[in-house]
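Lab notebook: predicted structure, single chain.

Context: the supervisor wants predicted structures on file for every construct in the current expression panel, including those that have not yet been purified. This is the next one on the list. No modifications to the sequence; it matches the entry in the shared construct table.
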Amino acid sequence: MRVAADCTEKAHIRNEIDRLDRALVALFAERQTYVRRMAEIKQHPDEAYDQHRIDTMLADIRARAAALGLEPEQAETVWRVLIDWNVAYEQRTISARTGLSLTPPQD
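Prediction complete. Output recorded below exactly as produced.
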């Protein structure tokens, strides 16, 4: 492992990025085990979407990203994709398990 400042060649940087990518994939895979479990616990597909929880998560992610020197917009973009995928996954999984559909939006 090398810190970025100690990388003197492109190969060094690529090796470290590859190392970090492997770690990120492992973390996302671990995170997905909790999403799967959440889908087992929730009783209705409507429970998969919680705007307050999403807003709270994104605010926290942006703050943490900024504190660590990562552009908050980049972190938010990644998490929005992750959240959208997880919500859709939970909705599909809960619907398949319970036979219930999402409640149509009220006009």
